[in-house]
Amino acid sequence: MITWIIVAVVLILLLMMMAMYNGLIRLKNRVAESYSDMDVQMKRRYDLIPNLVSTVKGYAAHEQGTFEKVVAARNQAMATSGENVEKKLAAENALSSTLKSLFALAENYPDLKASQNFLDLQNELTDTENKIMASRRFYNGNVRDFNTKLQIFPTNIFGRMLGFTAKKFFQLANDQERQVVDVKF
Asked: I need a surface site. Which of 16, 58, 65, 149 has the fewest CB within 10 A?
């Protein structure tokens, strides 16, 4: 009788571990999927940037430094695609900052602001930035769910034994990006 009780307890523990493991794998895959979704939108942004830069270059040829910074930030962000999440997200934050400077530069050229090509590219880039923002929220939500599951008893014991570690949230790289934008007309 005692043997059957021990076997039943072991079986229950094994089933619990299997359920916890499968739950963690499911959440881990959702985090990876949401990161991949974010990556797809960032790739779309990479494809739009050369067109935007060349359009603005036609109007503001003497602003070479701004263009070089945007292109360098784009290249850096593209080069970090296979590296860890923190480096990738830092490079993406740098790219977002340089794009802001490109749009600020474009504000100085009324003919450029009226150009349909520029307006179309700006709208596409704005749409892409909105999709990136949504995918970052989705990623952070999946990271939250995964980390919560990993921290709740008894998963916290078995999860760490099975080698699962907490994931990092997407965060802004610097405090300047948290500041309210001062718009003046």
From this structure: 65
CA atoms of 162 and 179, how far apart (whole Å): 41
Are 21 and 162 in contact by the 8 Å Cβ rule? The answer is yes
Tokens linked to 64? 């070479």
| 142 alpha-carbon distance from chain centroid | 12
Cβ contacts of residue 109 below 8 Å, gap of 6+?
A: 56, 59, 60
Is 60 exceeded by the pLDDT of residue 180? no
Query: Distance between CA atoms of 19 and 11, rounded to whole angstroms?
Result: 12
- Report if residue 177 sits inside a domain: no
Amino acid at 56: V
Report the CATH number that the domain containing residue 65 is assigned in CATH.
1.20.1440.20
Q: Is residue 60 part of a domain?
A: yes
